[in-house]
Structure formats: C-alpha cells, structure tokens
Amino acid sequence: MARDPAGARNAEEAVISELVERLRSRDWRLTAQRRVVAEVLAGEHVHLSAEAVYDRARRILPEISLATVYNTLNELVAMGEVLEISTGEGPKRYDPNTTVAHHHLYCVGCGGLRDVSPEGLDTLSLSADERHGFELVGVDIVFRGRCPQCQAPATAGAHAVTSESGSA
Ligand SMILES: [Zn+2]
Ligand SMILES: [Zn+2]
How far is ligand 2, taken at its centre, from the CA of residue 14, in Å? Predict the structure, then answer.
C-alpha cells in the first residue's frame, strides 16, 4: 500500500506502533484480540468510542466480542496507555496519544474530536482556596464548537446531519 510520506497517517501509525511496542515491553499479554483493539485505536480516526472500536475490530477479527473490547479498553486505561475522554455528551472516547500532552476540540454537531495544543495553559492555575485540599493530577480542556461541515447552512431547512454523524 502506497503511503503519503509526510501525511498525518504516518504520525498516527507512529502512535499506534508505539502503543503496541509499549504494551509489548510491559509484558502485557498481547493476544490477537487485544492486539486488534490496540491497533484499531489509531488509523484515520483516533478518539473512537468503544462501539466504534468494536466495529473496526470485528472487521479484522470477526469473533471478537464487545465485552472483550470493553475489558481491553478498561485495562489499557488503567495502565495509563490509553486516555479516556469524556466530551460531556455521548459515549466516552479512547485516545492512544498519551505521549504528547494535548487537549481537545469537540464538534457539538457531529461529535468530531481533534487534538489541540491551546496556548496560555502554563498560566492556568487554581488558587489554594479553589483547590479545596485536592492534590491535582491533571487538567483536561475541551473546546466546543461546530466544525466547518456542521457550520454549512442546512439545505432544505431541516437537519443536514448525515450518516457520517459520530463517525469521526
Ligand atoms: Zn461537526
Ligand atoms: Zn487526543
């Protein structure tokens, strides 16, 4: 298969082979089913829901079950190898990009989710008062909006959301 040498695909493939590599080096029992789950997390669409992971995994390994997909995702999250992202609506999404700190841009129209690196985060802080005695372990920022496709005026006056909805 020909590949665009400078394309985003390569970055995504790097993320996934990195994930599989990391898992191997941690002695995680890389069964065929677990491997497929780890592999389909990357590709053209990162940030898949568990159902989307299942759909993709099933095309490669038809006998895989939804329960296995959920268990594997939960294990990967518990190991810190995959991030679980809550957009505030819809199902949780899974992100194999744990090596580069990033935040997210979420489309309220189609559910698309992109990685972003917002500026000014270094000056973001909570005063001792507002920390309420918490020991902070992280911050997740989700910018919400409408992607260019979802901003396009609806043609027949009705909803122009197509079957692509939620697939990104
Ligand atoms: Zn959208
Ligand atoms: Zn991400």
Answer: 14
